[in-house]
Each structure stands twice: as C-alpha cells, then as structure tokens.
Design a protein that fits this description.
Order of helices and strands: HHHHHH
Shape: elongated
Largest sheet: none
Radius of gyration: 18 Å
Number of helices: 6
C-alpha cells in the first residue's frame, strides 16, 4: 500500500487568478480614466520614491505575498485561528490593493488613498504576526510588503496633508508647513 501526499489546495494558477483579478479591478475604471501625472503633480516629500518604481515593486510584492499565501494555505496542520487570520487579512490586503488605484487616480483623493494605504499597513502587520505563528518563511515574505507599506504610508499621509483633495473638496491641512 502506498501513501500519496494530498494535492496542494493552492496551486500556481490560483495565485495567477488572484493577481489577474486584483489588477483588473485596479485597472478598471481607473486605468482607463486615471491621470498618470496625478502623483507627480503633488508636492511630494523628499523621501517619496519615483513613480516608475511602483509598478515593478508592487509586482514583486504581489508575487511574494502570493507565495506566502500558498505556503499558509498548503500547510499540513490543523486549522488554527492564526492561520485563519492570515487568510482573512491577506484577502483584505488584496481588496485594498485592488481599490487603491480607483481611490487615488480615478477619484483623485489623496486622503482616501492615504486611508487605504494605512489600512494596508495594518493588515500587513496582522498578517506578519499571524503568519509568524504558523509559517515563519511566509511571515518573512509578507514582511517585505510591510516594509514597503511603512514608506508608502509616510508618503501617502504627507501627500494627503500637503495637497488639496479634489474629490473631498479638501484643502491642505491647516498649519502644515510646506515641503521644502
């Protein structure tokens, strides 16, 4: 009698489907109607990364997040609260990623984009902590996104404070000193 290992529940094409769906949601309608110069037209903090860096870096972070998700889904351990928390927080993270472009580029709302980015940071932190209890390599992969979101959150909050929000009809925050 031979024993066969159970087939993985999360396969490469599951990750490809998640990536395609999140990017399709992100592209529609913002990709067709968005303003590519919107980001560079803001008063940016000196630590803001160049706009060309976002797409390749997010692709890398999405792939590492999907590898982490596959690791957690395919663990041969009893279901646990930590594992479930990783799965839920990663799902929320993908939703936040998918709607960011609509909030920022289509609605032209740096305030909503900053809120989305800060929520993504919190979700990534929850994912890292939860994943550390079930699969340390997965936690390490997710922590790459957490590190990026630390910087992205600082940039997003700075943009929201120092620039007008056309969607919310909000002026820059009162008393905020101009970026030098």
């Amino acid at each position: 009698m031979t024993s066969t290992a159970p087939a993985p529940r999360f396969r490469w094409w599951h990750g490809a489907a998640i990536l395609a769906a999140a990017n399709a949601i992100s592209f529609w309608p913002a990709g067709a109607l968005g303003d590519a110069a919107f980001y560079t037209g803001f008063r940016l903090p000196p630590f803001a990364p160049p706009d060309w860096l976002f797409a390749p870096l997010w692709l890398l972070l999405n792939i590492t997040s999907l590898v982490a998700l596959a690791r957690v889904v395919n663990l041969e351990i009893a279901p646990s609260r930590r594992r479930q928390l990783v799965l839920v927080s990663e799902a929320v993270g993908w939703l936040l990623f998918a709607v960011f472009t609509t909030l920022f580029f289509w609605l032209h709302s740096p305030v909503l984009a900053a809120a989305d980015t800060l929520a993504g940071l919190l979700v990534a932190l929850v994912s890292v902590v939860a994943a550390a209890g079930v699969d340390r390599p997965a936690a390490g992969l997710i922590s790459l996104r957490l590190l990026w979101l630390l910087l992205a959150s600082a940039v997003a909050v700075s943009i929201a404070l120092h620039n007008a929000d056309p969607f919310l009809s909000a002026a820059p925050a009162p008393g905020v000193k101009p970026i030098q």
